[in-house]
Write a structure and sequence with these properties.
There is one protein chain. The chain has a five-stranded mixed β-sheet. It is an alpha+beta fold. It has helices at residues 77-80, 84-98, 103-106, 124-145, 176-179, 210-234; strands at residues 14-18, 26-32, 35-44, 58-65, 110-119, 158-166, 169-172, 184-191, 196-203.
Length: 237
């Protein structure tokens, strides 16, 4: 029995509320169980120096956790400096979202996705990617409505979910009690059409078999299909 009482292949309750902030070109609050992340998309008519005069667009990301997002207070990273974990997650979010993007169609402009974890209960990077795509979709919709892009730069939804081996069983969408005790855990990033973008898997205290890895991939594929449905409903597609 999972601590939450969920089935092995059951996602936590997922909701995505859009239009959370006034000024961002796209925004949403994603809740995956007790993990809550505010995602915003900011559009700029510039690109990093290495992309100037290439005609290519860029999507990048920043990630952070509020001081009381976890059980005990942590200092803001603006005060103590970014951790290696934060930098790694930011890069993961950025490259994941770029995988579903036609950078030529976007044109020479940049969209920055900010993911701020309000409350953490496992899977914050996965929730950030899933909610980040919704914020990105809303920002791109504004560009299309204003006829600033000719064709849709977003070719496929992008979502992410965690899976792991908990109490000897493959389970979908780990919450903190499971994540902290899982013998194997992984993060899976995929497109809406089922293509893999990134897989991060590691064993802690127990190895895993090829068969178990395949079981986790199957769970992730089904879970991401469900997340994409929620994403599309949130953006009216």
């Amino acid at each position: 029995m999972r601590p939450s009482g969920r089935k092995l292949n059951e996602l936590r309750p997922v909701t995505i509320e859009t239009g959370i902030t006034r000024h961002a070109e796209g925004s949403c609050l994603i809740k995956m169980g007790d993990t809550h992340v505010l995602c915003t998309a900011s559009l700029e008519d510039r690109v990093p120096p290495f992309l100037k005069n290439t005609g290519l667009g860029w999507v990048t990301a920043e990630y952070g956790m509020l001081p009381r997002a976890t059980h005990s207070r942590m200092n803001r990273e603006a005060k103590r400096g970014q951790s290696g974990r934060t930098q790694e997650i930011q890069r993961l979010i950025g490259r994941s979202l770029r995988a579903g993007l036609d950078r030529v169609a976007l044109g020479e402009r940049q969209i920055t996705i900010d993911c701020d974890v309000i409350q953490a209960d496992g899977g914050t990077r996965c929730a950030s990617i899933t909610g980040g795509w919704v914020a990105l979709r809303l920002a791109v919709d504004k560009l299309m409505k204003a006829r600033e892009v000719i064709s849709d730069p977003l070719v496929d939804p992008v979502a992410a979910v965690s899976c792991g081996i908990y109490a000897g069983q493959p389970v979908l969408d780990l919450d903190y009690p499971e994540d902290s005790e899982a013998g194997t855990d992984g993060n899976f990033v995929m497109t809406g059409s089922g293509k893999l973008i990134e897989v991060q898997m590691s064993a802690e205290g127990a190895t895993f078999s090829r068969d178990q890895m395949n079981q986790l991939l199957d769970l992730a594929e089904a879970g991401i299909s469900g997340l994409v449905t929620v994403q599309n409903e949130a953006v009216g597609r």
